[in-house]
Design a protein that fits this description.
Strand order of the largest sheet: 1-2-3
Order of helices and strands: HEEHE
Number of domains: 2
Radius of gyration: 19 Å
Number of helices: 2
Helix content: 10-25%
Structural class: alpha+beta
């Protein structure tokens, strides 16, 4: 798929210049490029993938570690925000759908 094929997916509220700029930036990505942020960041960030998220398996009544991705907004889970109750992290399990091995 080429960036120009995404034209219908660009948010309607962007100006024509902003939409064109977005398409130009998308054209710079090569196929099968892995994009990662710095592994040195200690903050919990939306989109982070973790390999040892602790879950409780209700069917077997056991605690397990799974791979998952953080879906909570970064600002909602920031330790810097004042709150009366502790933040709760929302995540989605990462599951293999098929295809090539990583």
């Amino acid at each position: 798929m080429e960036a120009k094929d995404l034209r219908d997916q660009i948010p309607y509220y962007l100006t024509a210049a902003a939409a064109e700029g977005l398409l130009q930036e998308l054209e710079k990505y090569k196929p099968h490029t892995n994009i990662y942020a710095s592994a040195q960041n200690e903050d919990l960030l939306q989109g982070d993938a973790w390999s040892k998220l602790t879950i409780f398996d209700f069917e077997s009544s056991t605690v397990r570690k799974i791979k998952g991705i953080v879906v909570s907004n970064s600002c909602d889970i920031s330790k810097d925000n004042a709150r009366e109750i502790p933040p709760r992290l929302s995540f989605a399990p990462i599951v293999k759908l098929g295809g090539r091995e990583n």
